[in-house]
Amino acid sequence: MFKSALLPKDEILCLPGIAPEALNSLRAGWAQVEPADPLGESGVDAWVTGRIGGERGKTWQRLRFRPSTAPSSIYRAGPVWHLPRAGLVITDQGELLTDSASKRVSPQPALAGLPGIERVGDADVFTAPVRAPTIDGASLFVPYGGFNYGHFFIDGLSGLLALQEAGLTRDLPPLAPPLRPWQRGLIRLAFGDLAVREVKAGVVRLENAAYSSNINHFLHHPNALLARLVAQVRSRFPPAPRRDRKLFLSRGNYSMRIMVNAREVEAALAARGFEIVEPHRLSPQDQASLLTQARIVVGPTGAGMTNALFMAPGATVLEIQPENFSSFWLGAGCHAVGLDWHAFVVASPAPETESPWLARQRRGFAFGYRVPVDGLMRFLDRL
What contacts 44, CB < 8 A, 6 or more positions away? Predict the structure, then answer.
């Protein structure tokens, strides 16, 4: 048993960069497995020209596009402690390995309350449990926030692909906290019958561990790993009998961000031949199958738009973005897999009273926004 302050820092078990295949024989090491594929500042400006519409488009384009240059790396470590639900990897010296933890500590620097961690004075202190499951080796891939469909697929499963391609999952079987049915469905869709061990314990002891830097916000700086992951999913389906469907991916009754005139938007799109789809009501298999048949997809920003990545290269994606919740994550992903992405940016938030009273009472309500339907239709008609 030990106690030590948690100090987020660079991966401290890194050797100089080595070939990925050499990781199999190491207990500790590091290798870069995929370079970043950034557009760069000038490249972004060129790529998005003409792709951003809406009354707030020009301001947002100037302020929001900041492509990352982070590559993908794989780390070997051990022995270590692992908190499966939080994604954290902690050494026997109490050092918190950065790429395993940045997604957790960036929004919530305080770690007290996680299994084995309490606040002592001005430090978060980890106390190794007297009894914890001990596992010989594991590949870790579930990021903090893996309950989110987009982060689980883009951050988590692209990282799992990196570990698989490096040959590590054979001797270090994938390990995860208890998964939901849709998460298991996505794993089957991308990896077939790859077995994943699910553990309920809050803390586990790993004699050997491997994980990828993809669990640290890869969604915001994807590279060719995402393209290969999506290709694996697409390969599960026979050639689509049709690729001309037009879809609107609705967020349904999710309360965090409310499109206050969603019915008006849906009616206008339906008049142009769009099908209204609520992805969360479909299995991952059915979602991906549907999207492989689509020529154009429209939808509000959110995890459900991750499904657009399954479209055939060259298909069109139109993302509706509230001004106060805009980012380049879907655009970056579409660029990585060869899709024609566009964004329509709307003023937000709307006055709170414009959101339905019942929606405002639900847990997680954040804000509402109104889409200028005529402007959206004009922008859509130009695509």
Answer: 65, 67, 328
Q: Parallel, antiparallel, or unpaired for β 275-277 and 316-322?
A: unpaired
Q: How many domains does the chain have?
A: 2
The answer to whether 213 and 68 are in contact (CB under 8 A) is no
Question: 288 exposed, middle or buried (CB, 10 Å; 0-12, 13-18, 19+)?
Answer: buried
pLDDT in tens, 44-77: 777 888 888 898 877 666 555 565 667 899 999 9
Q: Is 237 in contact with 284 (CB distance < 8 Å)?
A: no
Would you call the peptide bond into 79 cis, given omega within 30 degrees of 0 as the criterion? yes
Q: Which two tokens stand for residue 316?
A: 């069109």
Closest by CA position to 373, among listed 292, 265, 283: 265
Q: What is the pLDDT of residues 151-196, one digit of tens each?
A: 999 999 999 999 999 999 999 999 999 999 999 999 999 999 999 9
CATH assignment of the domain containing 286: 3.40.50.360
Same domain, 194 and 109: yes
The whole-angstrom separation of Cα 217 and Cα 226 is 13
Which domain-ending residue is among 234, 265, 292?
Answer: 234
* 227 assigned to some structural domain: yes
The whole-angstrom separation of Cα 373 and Cα 81 is: 52
* Cα–Cα distance measured from residue 265 to residue 374, given in angstroms and rounded to the nearest whole number: 9
The reply to whether the predicted model has a pTM over 0.70 is yes
337: containing domain: 245-382
